[in-house]
C-alpha cells in the first residue's frame, strides 16, 4: 500500500456505503485510488469501518462498464443460461452514446405516447447523490408524466417513515447517533449495528463503557449484545406483543410522563385502553421474554435521564412494520423520552443516501420534502415550479411496479417500460423469480449502472455510469447531515456521469433542460432542489458546503448551525402534538408449518453491501468474505446432523438456494439467517413479497422454509 504522503492528490468525499456517512479522503496516485483515510467528520471523527477503509477498488475493477450496450436480437431476457453478469458479450453489442440514448429515450417516449403515462416507471437509487435523485424523480414526474418512481427506501424503512410521518410529522431522526453519549439507556431493536452501521456502533460501545445501559432487543443476538446490559431475544415476529408489554408496564406502574403526554401528545386514552390486554405476564409466553425482565426494562427506560431508541430493518421489514414503529413512537412519548438530548427516535438508515433520496422526492406519493402529490397546494406549487402539468395520483411502489409489469395486456395501468438508475431489483426485490420474470417481460428496460448487474442483464439498453469517486455531489446521512463528496477520478472509457445521462434522456423525451456549470450543472441542480425543499435546507447553500463539507438540517439560514435535536418545543404535525396510534398483533404473512418448519431471516453482513455489486468487486472485502454462508445455531445443526461448513439447501414455496452453513449461536432455534449479497445463493429467491399495507415494504425478515442437508452450491 502506498503511504498517503506519496500520492498525487487527496480528494475529500463521503463513504459510499452505509447511512452513517463517514467523511473520507481518497488518496489518488496514477489516476487510481490507492488508500482511503477517515476525516474528522461529525459522524465519524476519523473512524472508518472495513468497508470504508478498504472497499474502494471496485471503481477500478476490470468488469466496469465502459461503453453503452444494446441487447442483441433474440437473446432471451432471463437467467436460464446466464453466466455471471460481467460476461455480457454474447447478449449485448456495443453502441455509440448517440444510438444508445436515442434508443433508450425513444422507446420510452413511444410507450408513453402509445399507452399513456401509466405505462412507464423509474427506480432511482439511494446510492446516487441528492442531485441525481432529485433530477431522476423530476424526469419521471415531468417526462414520463407519472408518479411511478421509487427506490430502495421501499425495501428498507418505508414502514418506519410511514409511522413517523403519521405520528411525529417527520420521517427523519429526532436525534443524531452520537447523542447516545448523553443517554442513560440505549434501546437497540431489530438492528445489527456492528455489522451494518459499524462506526455508529462505536458511539454506542463508548457510551456503554462510560456507564450507559444498552438494551438489545432482537430475535438474533449479534455482536452489540456483548456490550448490552440486557438482551431481549424475543421470538421473531412478536415485536408488537413485546413493545406493548413495555408500554403497559409504564402506564400500569405510574411511570408515564404526565406533563409531556398532556401537553404534547394526542390519543393517549386509546393507547392506554389498547395496551391493557398486553401485560408482561400475558405476553411473556408469546414473545419469549420473562415478565420480570420486561418490567425491569420498562422501568429503566422510563426512569432514565435520557433513553434513546435506535432501530433497523428488524422492525421495518414485516407486514406489521408500521405497527412496530408506532409502538416505538408510543414508548418514547409516554415516557417523555423525546425532544431533548440523549433521547428520541433514530431509525438507522441503511444506504449512504436513502435519507437524501427520500427527501429529494424519489418516492411515489411525495414531491421533494415529503409534500404529498395529491395535496392540492403542493401539486399546484410543483406544477408552477416545473412548468408542466403533473399527475395528481400517487404512483406505484417497488413491489407493486413488479406486479404491474406482469398485468394483463388490457390493464390500463400495465407497466411496459422502465428506467432503472443504479438499483438492482433483480437481486434486492422479494420473490426474485417473480421480480426477474417481471423485469424480463418489460417491452423496454433501460438500466444505468457501473457493472453488468443482475438487473442490467435483463435490460434492452445499458448505459455505463459513474462510480461515486467519479462525481461531485451531496448525500444526506442517517443523522440529517447534508455532506459533499468531490470527484477524485474520471469515469473509465466512455462511461459518463449519471447527472449527464439523466439530462440526455430528459432532453430526448422533450424536456427543455439546461443545467449549466461544472460537473454537469450539479450546483444548479442542487440550488433548484433546495428551493423545492422549501425551508428544510434553505441555510445550506452550495457555497457553504464547499467550506463546511457537512451541515445538519433543519437549517434555516446561512448562520444556522443546524438542529441536531428536533421536536424540542413542538412536533411538525397539524396540531403540534405526537399522535399516538395503538397497534395490535398481526401475524407474519407466512408462518412455519409442518412442511416448511424453519423461519428465514435475511439481512446484511459487515464486509458486503446490499446486493454485492460493489463490495464483492473490492479486493480486500471479497478476500474476507468470498462466499455465501447461511447461519444456524448449534442445536439446529445437531438436530439436522450437520456440521459447520456443510452444504444445505434452503427452500421456500418460491425458490431455493444451496449454500454452506456456519455456526452462529446468536441465530435463534428454528431459524436460518442468509445475507442477500450473493448472486450464487440469492436469498431473495425465497423471500415473500407480502407487504405492510401502509409502508408497502415486503416481509424480508420472516418467511417459512425447509432446511435440507446437501445440495450443489
Ligand atoms: Fe462507510 Fe458506514 Fe463504514 Fe462509515 S460505518 S466507513 S459510512 S460503511
TrEMBL record:
Q: Give GO MF terms, alphabetically.
A: formate dehydrogenase (NAD+) activity
- Keyword Cell division included in the entry's annotation: no
Its EC number is 1.17.1.9
Organism (species): Variovorax soli
Instruction: Tell me which residues make up the 4Fe-4S Mo/W bis-MGD-type domain.
Output: 8-63
Q: What is this protein called?
A: Formate dehydrogenase major subunit
Give the shown range, full length included: 236 to 948 of 964
Q: Which cofactors go with this protein?
A: [2Fe-2S] cluster
Q: Which family does it belong to?
A: In the C-terminal section; belongs to the prokaryotic molybdopterin-containing oxidoreductase family.
Enzyme class, UniProt record, top EC level: oxidoreductase
Q: What are the entry keywords?
A: 4Fe-4S, Iron, Iron-sulfur, Metal-binding, Oxidoreductase, Repeat
